[in-house]
Each structure stands twice: as C-alpha cells, then as structure tokens.
Design a protein that fits this description.
The protein is an alpha+beta fold and 474 residues long. It has 2 domains: 131 residues, no CATH class; 220 residues, MetI-like fold (Orthogonal Bundle), CATH 1.10.3720. It is built from 17 helices and 8 strands. It has a 4-stranded antiparallel beta sheet with strand order 3-4-1-6. A 4-stranded antiparallel beta sheet has the order 2-5-8-7, with no helix packed on it. Helix 4 packs across helix 16. It is extended and about 100 Å long.
C-alpha cells in the first residue's frame, strides 16, 4: 500500500515521526554549531598565533592566512636552494663548494631599456635582540656573486601607480658561490637593487623577506634556507639567537628545562602529599582533624601576593638555616627554593579529601577482612581507584607550575640561565617587542603552550572516569 492510500491516522503518525526526526537533527546541528563556535573562540587566538609565528612580519596589515611559508611551491624552491647551498634540503645553509642559483623577475615598461639588478651579499646579522651581542660569521666573507644574466623575457602588462602599463617581464639569474674553504654557515643573505624606479620587482625564486626603499631593493635574509629553515625560521631563531653571554648555551632550552624541573617536582610532591593528607582527613579519626580541615579551607582563600614577602624572607634565610645542611646559604636564585615553597597546595588536599569521601567504606572493610593494614588499604585499594582525581590534579598542578610567573619572578633573578619559561618570554617581549620582531616572540609562546596541550590530551580521559573507579551500585 503506498503512502497516498494510507488511512488518515497512520499518515499523521508518519508525519509526526518525520517531524520529530527533523527536530532531533536540528537540535544536534545547533549543538554542533555552538560547540564549533566555542572551539573557534577558545582555540582561535592560539591558531592565529601559530600561523603568525611562521610569518616574516606578523604585523603586516591586512593579516593574511595564505602566507608564503604555507605554499608548496615555496617549499620545493627552499629545499632545492638548501641542497645547492649545503646539500641540506631540510635546514639549508651555505657550505664550501656551494653554487646557489637564484632568479629574479622585473617588469620593464615599454620604452625603457632593461638592465640587470645589482646583487650583493651584505654583512647582515641573521637576527637582532639577544643575537646582537653574539659572535657571528658573515657569509659576505666567503661568498662571491656571479653577475646576473638574463634568462627569459615575456610580454605582458602590469599595474603601475594605478594604471595598466604594457611592458616586458624580464627574468635574471644570479649565482652565489662559496669561495675557498671555511665553515658551514646557516644563512646566506642577499640584496637585489633594481637599476631604476621604472623597473619594478615582480617575483623571485623565494619571496623577499622585505622590500626596502619603496620597492627598489628586494632584501633576503636567507636564500638557501631548506624547507624547514624556510617554514620554521622563527622557531630556529628562538634557539639560536637567545644564548647566554657567559656560557653560550641556548637560553630557551635552559628556561624550558627549569620549567620542566619545577613543574615535574611539584606534580610529584603534590600527588604524594595531597593524596596522603586527603586520605587522612577523609578516613582517619584524630584530635584536631576538624581544625586542620578548616585551616586547609582558609589557606585557599589567601592569595600568594599577600604572603610573598614573608616567604621571600624565609627562602633568603635558607628556611631558618636548614639549607646549610646541603651547602646552600640561601634558597634565592635556585630551583630548590621555588620547589620547596610550593610542595603541595591546599586546593589539592581538598580535592583529594572530597574524592576519597566518595569511595564507599565497604571496599576498605572488605580489604580489612583480607588482613590488610592501613597503609596497604591506602596504597593498594583506595589510591588506584583515585586515578580520575590524580589525573585531574596532575593537569592542574602542572599547568599552574608551568605558567607560574609571579613567584619565580621574585625568587629567580640571576643568572639568566636559571629563569623559567614565562620569565624568559618576558625577556623576549622586552628585547624583541621594541623592534617589532613579534615572529620570534610568537614562536616562543606557541612552544611554551605545547606541553600543556600534550598533557591535557594524555590525561583528559580521567575527567570522564568517575563511575568505573569511584564507587559501586547499591
């Protein structure tokens, strides 16, 4: 029987079911769109920062998503130039025996004689800021430029000062060779100056780093970058330019190591002490238990900025002289001082106490019948069931220690190597922000966020695990 011959009530029922199905799909679609908008709202700044960290000039306006660093054609050209410069397609360079070919195309209006550009290898540092005080080797001391020669012409037209002008696109090839023996260099900069303002730069093997003197000079920081050196140049600069003046070590690596040491130490100490203190407050009966719990609640209400002076004086005195036992007169300017001043937080103890109270006592009573003592019941029965709380506490503690700025800024002042990553990013901001070099700052900020993202991806399932570890059905 077709739908047209169905009785009235079945047809109405079928229409109602279809309407309910469309309504469910509409609700699901609305929820999906809302969640997508929220994800863009929260992840948008991070994604935009990650994209901008690849740019040569993140301050360029208007901002664009289609940047040269994301072009597969530029990847191929950068890999080819890296092989020519140092037989290194990934990171490039300029090594003995190198012969780097590079092409530049100019538009020459009709009635104007074409002339080759003037190409030079300048004595330019690969970066500024902290890299300005480092000893560098210049490619100009080992490079020889073969004069440009014309390799192609193509008739066409271009827009000049708002008008369409007929002319010729002339392509020149320039070669830069490594003269003699010497070290392998990371960068090969060149400047290409047009012979006159009537001859306009159009394109080149790789887009120029910047156009100077009203477009008359196309400047390149590195014409043999390799594909990774081209795309992730700002990230390489983070490690290469920021170096200690005294030791020569990468400051960014030192800052990252300091942050990891502090964060991991605080996570381990928090999991250990918070779980034991939370279990004691939740299960054990002893004099002053209620007072201690009130003090834990009170400690959560006191901002660290209120007591930082007293904490600073305690660390300055080596925790009443105890630090002299391991040969330190003071705990200032040491990672030990930062760790010892935050072994466990009151909030972590409160979280673990509340979670342990949600576990039925019958589970421990059954273990007691089997002959386990108090420590065995805690370590073998209750603690494995607390994995959801421990996972959440791991994320919160690591994130708080990794992003902590105020207290390490107070304790860690010298030397520069011992500072943590948030303080190091402040150094980047003070040194490179004044010159508008935000690419390096954004690259450092993006890398500082990666450990938190990875940690959340690893431990996020523990936020959803409560029923399977936290109790039983009646």
């Amino acid at each position: 029987m077709s739908a047209a011959t169905l009785p009235h009530e079945p047809r109405a029922t079928l229409a109602m079911e279809r309407w309910e199905a469309r309504r469910r799909w509409a609700r699901a679609g609305i929820v999906y769109v809302v969640m997508l908008l929220f994800s863009l709202l929260f992840l948008g700044p991070l994604l935009f920062a990650a994209l901008s960290s690849l740019k040569t000039d993140p301050l360029a306006y208007p901002p664009r998503i289609a940047i040269p660093q994301l072009s597969p054609a530029n990847w191929a050209a950068a890999a080819r130039l890296g092989r020519a410069g140092a037989r290194a397609s990934l990171w490039g360079g300029f090594a003995p025996g190198a012969d780097v070919p590079f092409e530049l195309t100019y538009f020459v209006p009709d009635g104007t004689e074409a002339a080759p550009p003037t190409v030079t290898v300048p004595r330019r540092r690969p970066g500024g800021g902290l890299g300005a005080v480092q000893s560098v080797r210049y490619a100009a001391d080992h490079a020889a430029v073969v004069p440009p020669r014309e390799v192609g012409r193509e008739a066409g037209s271009a827009t000049v000062r708002g008008e369409q002008v007929a002319g010729t696109f002339v392509t020149y090839r320039v070669r830069v060779r490594y003269v003699g023996d010497g070290p392998t260099l990371d960068h090969l900069p060149i400047d290409a100056e047009a012979p006159s303002r009537t001859q306009a730069f159009v394109r080149s093997t790789l887009p120029p780093t910047r156009l100077e003197r009203l477009g008359l000079v196309a400047s390149y920081d590195n014409v043999a970058p390799g594909v990774l050196g081209y795309v992730f140049n700002n990230y390489r600069r983070v490690f290469e330019e920021a170096r200690s003046v005294t030791t020569g070590r990468s400051l960014f690596l030192s800052w990252t190591a300091s942050s990891f040491i502090i964060a991991i130490a605080k996570v381990l100490s928090t999991l250990l002490f918070a779980s034991m203190a939370g279990y004691a407050l939740a299960r054990l009966r002893f004099p002053g238990r209620g007072v201690i719990f009130v003090l834990v609640l009170f400690a959560q209400m006191i901002p660290v900025q209120v007591i930082f002076i007293s904490n600073y004086l305690v660390l300055k005195g080596g925790i009443f002289g105890l630090s002299r036992l391991w040969g330190q007169a003071t705990l200032l300017n040491s990672l030990t001082g930062v760790v010892l001043s935050g072994l466990v937080g009151a909030g972590a103890v409160f979280i673990m106490k509340q979670f342990f109270e949600s576990i039925p006592r019958e589970i421990e009573e059954a273990a007691m019948i089997d002959g386990t003592n108090q420590w065995q019941r805690f370590s073998r029965v209750v603690l494995p069931m607390a994995r959801p709380a421990l996972g959440a506490l791991t994320i919160l503690t690591f994130q708080g220690a990794w992003n902590d700025f105020f207290w390490p800024l107070v304790v860690l002042t010298t030397p520069e190597d011992i500072k943590t990553l948030p303080i190091g990013l402040l150094t980047f901001r003070n040194v490179y922000g004044t010159t508008g070099d935000w690419g390096l700052i954004l690259a450092g900020a993006v890398m500082s966020a990666l450990p938190i993202i990875v940690l959340f991806v690893v431990f996020q399932r523990y936020f959803l695990e409560g029923v399977s570890y936290g109790g039983t059905k009646e």
